[in-house]
Amino acid sequence: MTIRVLLVDDHAVVRQGLRMFLSLDPELAIVGEAVNGADALQKAHDLRPDVILMDLMMPVMDGITAIGILRRDLPDMEIIALTSVLEDASVFNAMRAGATGYLLKDTEADELCRAIKAAAAGQVQLSPQAAARLLREVPAPNSPEQLSEREKEVLRLLAQGMANKEIAAALIIGEKTVKTHVSNILGKLGVVSRTQAALYAARIGLV
After folding, report:
1. Secondary structure of 132-184 in the HEC alphabet?
2. Contact 32, 54 (CB under 8 A)
């Protein structure tokens, strides 16, 4: 199955470079490009990509604002923040807005291809530097015991980077059931993304 990718960056040369090396991977198809967050919203609605690579610092509408709107309107799309900025605030805000991952623009080409495929499968993708900063920023939830034993199992596997299909196989339950558990976990923890849930799991010692 080909993974449909939308590139969002205000620099044409960055989009060109990304298109050039991502097109070499037969499993990835670049379905479009956008030059800012507002353009990204329009293109995402029209093209329905599986994964969006989103720059954060852009004119008209920044990437973090766009991620928040896309997460609300098109929750099935996965969004990787791809940026040259590694500031605590931008990492945290991108994740809080609902990004599936946070990678730096100096990420190697093959690593980026792997990250896109993993994100398409619902796995969290963070550069090591971003992960370290996020872990410092995320507060421990007040009462993690509100999760049922099954939800804790699902959260533990999710935090290990497993996709829904893999969690379903590991626990011998349906993929739909896993999706329901994940939704319930996000609701109970008061977070909007699997990434944040994974970070909570690390905080409370589940992984």
Report:
1. HHHHHHCCCCCCHHHCCHHHHHHHHHHHCCCCHHHHHHHHCCCHHHHHHHHHH
2. no
DSSP 8-state assignment for residue 8? E
The residues, any chain, with a CB within 8 Å of residue 175's CB and separated by 6 or more, are 164, 165, 168
**Cα 140 to Cα 199: distance, rounded to the nearest angstrom:** 9
> What domains can you pick out in the chain, each with its CATH number?
3-136 (3.40.50.2300), 138-203 (1.10.10.10)
From first to last of its 207 residues, the chain has per-residue pLDDT tens of 799 999 999 999 999 999 999 999 999 999 999 999 999 999 999 999 999 999 988 999 999 999 999 988 988 889 998 888 766 667 778 877 888 888 888 888 888 898 899 888 777 766 666 665 665 555 555 555 588 889 989 998 888 878 888 899 999 999 899 989 988 888 888 776 777 788 778 777 776
b (16+ CB within 10 A) / e for 92-106: bbbbbbbbbbbbeee
